[in-house]
Fold these 2 entries.
Entry 1:
Amino acid sequence: MKHSKTAIASSIILLVSLMCGSAFAAGIKNAPAPFDKGDVPIALIDYISGGDFFRAFESGARKQAKALGVDLRVFPGKEDAALQRDQIQQAINLNVKAIVINHGLPESIKDVVKQALDAGIKVVAFDVNIDHPQVPQVEQSDKDLAQILLDQAIKDNGKSFKAGYVYVPGFAPLDRRDAVWSAVKKANPGILEKARWGTVNAPVPTSIAAQANAALRANPDISVVIAPWDEFARGTKLAANELGVNKKLKIYSADISTSDISEIREPSSPWVATAATNPAVVGAVSIRAAALLVAGKPVPHNVVVKPVLVTRADLEKYDIKTVEELSAKLPEFGKSDAVLAPWIPQPN
Ligand code: SR1
């Protein structure tokens, strides 16, 4: 097959621009250096990339980066601790100005984060405890998230029920939510955790469905499942539908996306409530925190985005079908005033 010189040249240009991210971004008038000149290289290093939450987080991060004239280099995660370490080292070698770390296992990356800090690179961590005074921690107030969710479960089911619980230890948000679940069980001896399952193996919903199927079969008296990640809820719902127990089960989760809304609103869906932030907003907040650090401005050590409770009843009452409609109905879900500055443009 013959290729014209122009076609080959355009492919090379495309490849180089993909490798370089959003090349040649303009500077922002009256912004502090280096944002006045534009093209500020920042790396976003994921641990998990699959699932609606992480896709929306990345999309929000990209939009905020573009608005800031940031050349954002995204390193997708594959739930591989060694790969994430390697990617942090690659970002250091690329001389980025800041690194945003999205999830991960602290023990496998703390030393390379220290190398980045020693090289003068700013670091922001979302949902991974780096435990370093120079690294701001972004989170969704997981304590509040779990509390409002469990309050709703108790409101719907009373203080005595048999529960299934979905959990994988070692992930900061899940560990923080788990501390609230333990406290709620302790305060309510009538709430019995009959079975526990969980995995982060991709695709998570399919892996969870297999586990949930076995757990629900073995414990037919489970009437409530606490599944505090939307991927956990999707998998548990799959299993409930397969077993035909969807009408007698209620699933309470975390996170929300447009496709979650349609799953929650399906006729006879067992998924009845979720506590969530808008993940695109959390992505944007993480980039803003990194930009402020690069500009030499102060950033609080704990940057918190507040969650809201979303029930099937409310989605139906207000006929909400998308995350955009939810943002319009609940302004506190659609935006966050964390780490703002007059010179930071907010994406639409
Ligand atoms: C494996 S941790 C999954 C959670 O990370 C984010 O905090 C989302 O809220 C999701 O529930």
Note: The chain has two domains: 2-135+279-306, 142-276.
Entry 2:
Amino acid sequence: MSAPASTADARRALERCDELAGLSASAEGVERVHLSPEHARANALAARWMGELGMRTWSDQAGNQWGRLEGRAPGLPALVLGSHLDTVPDAGRYDGVLGVVSALEVARRLAPRAGQLPFALEVVAFSDEEGTRFSTALLGSCAVAGAWREEWWERTDREGVSVREAAERFGLDPSRIGEVARRPEDLVGYLELHIEQGPLLEAADRPLGVVTSIAGARRFTGRVVGEARHAGGTPYPRRRDALVGAAEVVLAVERLAVEADGIATVGRLQAHPGGVNVVPGLVELSLDVRAEHDEARDALVERVREHAQRSCARRRLAFELTETHTAAGVRCDEELQASVLAGIAATGDDAPPRIWSRAGHDAMAMAAITPVAMLFVRCADGISHAPQESVTLEDVAHGIDAFEAAVLDVARRRG
Ligand code: GLV
Ligand code: MN
Ligand code: MN
């Protein structure tokens, strides 16, 4: 593999990842959630960086930050490059963020030649991909795709603040959410660079991969309902311990997912009332289910639901599952994938790994209105959604080179 054209751009991109992490790093680590003060600070920083490149900048009514360079004529449809700036709790520095800062490096390289491009070049920093705050995901990109749902306004965070209240406090006008939607005819496509968040590139000893499809997740809040009673005084035959029931559910979730070659995770579990000497009467848990194809994922959801209901009933417990998020899996566009492959080939690898993404991405929402494709960058040990996320300077340099070459390939195809 040839040496990357420039490590200076990659160094700046990584310094910016650090700068964004520094906006929200506290004793608890990095956390930047939708419509928070950290979100406003991150958008302001991204807007400044976009402005420095001569981009026209704006933030929309869903909290997304945009920048645009005109192409060879004003008002041409745009090729959009981007990712998200929100994070999971106790996050790493690169999930989403690397895609935004790399898109800015591509814009920096192309800015002097933008007037020759057959499209406008836009960079977007989406506001909510993770769903950390409101237990749903892709709020920013769904608004752009015209897929906003009215019921989302009433979703609340753990403090009981609704999306509507949070949006108003952020300075947004919920009645104008419809204006965020972009028209398909105003777009050429959407390209996203992202860390892989898995170990396949490392195992293949390759810095970059091309994404073939993105698995759609379904997320739920589950409730196991029993009866809170005295921990000492209640004989076992009388106990209806919701936490023991939930423990059986958690084990079954893992077993059923492995059997079905799917992926299912209980990431949050809360026992109530939470007294050391009280039999737990209620457990709330989260459930996230994925598979390469939506049919397999949906079948796994039903198996988990039936199994949990049966195992809870044996303990005289009720089990309820409420859906909080669903995203359809999407296939990446063949022609844009070919451009990503051409971009990676320009860095010296003409047969990079082809990967279906187990993680969700803003590209899934954007696919409803425009062709999408993605480029993965290797991350150490495949670890993500954790502070240990790490990438190398050299891989990021290859990633930016490939990203730029992919954009130029799209330009070449459009003539
Ligand atoms: C987003 O990172 C997801 O796949 O949950
Ligand atoms: Mn991400
Ligand atoms: Mn993520």
Note: Residues 393-414 form the longest helix (22 residues).
